[in-house]
Amino acid sequence: MDSIGTLLRQPSSSHTSCSVYHRHPVGGVEVTEVGRIEMELDQPEPDEDLGVEPNSDITALVLKQPQYRRKILIYLCLCSLLIFTTAFLLGYMAFRGSCLYCGEVGEIFPEEDKPSYRMGGMYLGELREMLKKYLRDDTIEATVRRVSRATHPSGSSEGTALAAEILESFKGLHMDHTWTDSHYATLQFPSRTQKNSLWIVDAEGEKVLEEIPLEDPDSYCAYSAIGTATGGVVYVNYGRKEDFDWLRSMGVSVIGCVVMMRVGGGISYAEKVFFAQKAGAGGALIYPDPADIPQDPRRLGLNSYTAISEHVHLGSGDPFSPGFPSFNHTQFPPTQSSGLPVIPVQPISANVASKLLSQLTGPVCPRGWQGRLPYVRCVLGPGFTSGDGRKVRMGVYNTMKPTLLNNIFSSLEGRIEPDQYIIMGAQRDAWGPGAVKAGVGTAILMELARTFSTMVKNGFFPRRSLLFVSWDAGDFGNVGATEWLEGYLSMLHLKAVAYFSLDQAVMGDDNLSAFTSPLLVDLIESTVKQVEHPKHAGQSIYIQAEKEGGSWKIIKPLYLNSAAYSFTAFGGVPAMELCFTEESRAYPFVNTPLDTHGRLQEVLGGRLGAVGRSLSELVGLMVLRLAHDHILPLQVSSYSQAARQFSVQLSKHSAELQARGLSPQWVFSAGGDYNRAAKTLKDDILKSDLQDDTMTRIYNTRIMRVEYYFLSQYVSVVETPFRHVLHGRGEHTLAALTQHLSLLTSDPRSFDEARFRRQLALFTWTLQGAANALSGDVWNIDNVF
């Protein structure tokens, strides 16, 4: 295929249906009209000759007039039959008309007990089969090949050409709306005039003893501090908080040193650098260790001379316009994110890391810190075996550049609630070819857009709107997505039902991981039972996971570097990111020049199209439920468990807290109010007429806002953008509160009573506010505050 647009323009089959209701266009909108039958039954006038009063009981009339008994009985029977028949016909016609867009009842009923409504003349089961029918393997594989044909970072000519192709592809699908959303963001790129460098220098840091070539000179860490750092070298394992805590406990100082950190450990580059500079390090080098990332090219490992790039901004979006959109920088005062590092950072290859670490001397590493670099005896540093006091100097010379970003949108408008959106998105840019980083997500996004568009042409009427988005500048910390969130933050909690991130959705094909908001857990658990595993024919993803793990453990919390994270932690929108991985053969090429279509196909054994189709089906079925159901299938009671767990921890420290004048009772009360509000909402929905669109919209509005309720109102969105008290970052979060509480046992002298009192108060009232809002109306709120 020559272009993505060619791949996506598929002929749709004809579909004819016949209905008993009538439609006619009014102002461009099809209106279903049901005829009204009005019937008046003539009432006999009172007959004075019979001596019956106008208000006499009809039974008395029949008893007094036997000659009329048979006529009256026949009259009553005919009336009853006529009324029953008329009511039945009216009820049937009304049901048929109202069920044009009927949906299921979400979490209210178990899956097997849910009523089977029809939508656009089709049952949900029929729509599921239609979705599976129209999804195609070959278009997914071909789109990945097309997207990853060359490096295409944001702002490059290749990136601009790819954006134009995707825009034309959306237009070719004849969606209801297609448009772009543009921003100017400040991105950081390698300097064209001065390359980043690494030297070994003398004890004074003046004389260069040896230059260490960076074997992968185009690799870099976006948003690193600019300049040089000179000092001894200290090996700090993965650079986690616990790693630096252990070094501190052993008396090993990293102050002023250049720290060496391994890729991985469950944290991002940005978090590694944050902990390093907090410990006092002067610079940071990050390398892939063979213990974590396979490095045998013959078995699809990473070359020992390749470094892995990644941004180091502890946040998302443009770090020079934190909390507000980069539509026009002149509108806002100059500022920058507190998550920007203050030390230089550079990724290096395993070969360079081996050369440095093999020359170190100092204490031996603890158990578990030993990597697999060749010729390296694991010691911590900071000295060199030469004994002459030599040091390492690193120089980072990246440059900042204002860059035009273009997010590309296309939508299918909902027929009942068009102002409520289910959003699917994927980043488009990549520093390398980006088969996994950008190609897979873009391919699944385009395939879902093509499939749903074809379904609409063949009789599918989504109740809510479907929004498909190709994001720009994802490699720099989800800049395109976050800038859009910042631009529409005041309205998205009223509009966005859920967000599905398709980034890096395929890195293997054995194990599925779902990084998700708790509100979407029930939805993913019910859907994986309906999708066949791409590698095991005849078995669902759920059954295969049960066989391999003994228990189903695919649900994981959202993480900072996920594109879904900002939607929940910053925007208050339920979000999910799905990924197929394979533990036996990890895919180590992301953010390197080796992330190609060919290598991905080899890792997957030629099953790229099939695996991509399985992910597309999984996301598509969840989107179908959200677009179809009358009541949104979001589990609002899920946050009750988090409140209960914290209450249990508080109870364990009840005596110590009360001795300090702190009562946990208010948290218990707020958690109870939230739990009751969630249960009351569920009960009210069960007792309601779900054909009443006004009532269901009221319920759905309350459900949609639940995630937003947990964004703290008491911190600044500019200074603390991730305001979610359960998923966010900062002093206001439950994690920070729990960590502080643990000091009562581990280190009572470090417990700050005033700080804890403030943390507890703000969390309690955020939880109480969520309970109050979920209750619906002020007259339904009943608490003792």
Automatic annotation (TrEMBL):
- Annotated Peptidase M28 domain ranges read 407-587
Alphabetical list of Gene3D superfamilies matching this protein? 3.50.30.30, Transferrin receptor-like, dimerisation domain (1.20.930.40), Zn peptidases (3.40.630.10)
Q: Which residues form the PA domain?
A: 230-295
Transmembrane stretches, by residue range? 72-95
Which UniProt keyword terms apply here?
A: Cell membrane, Disulfide bond, Glycoprotein, Membrane, Receptor, Signal-anchor, Transmembrane, Transmembrane helix
Q: Pfam families given for it?
A: PA, Peptidase_M28
Record's GO cellular component terms: plasma membrane
Query: Any idea where this protein resides?
Result: Cell membrane
Its membrane topology: Single-pass type II membrane protein
The record's comment on protein family reads: Belongs to the peptidase M28 family. M28B subfamily.
Taxonomically, the superkingdom here is Eukaryota
Q: What is this protein called?
A: Transferrin receptor 2
Query: Which CDD domains would you find in this protein's record?
Result: M28_TfR, PA_TfR
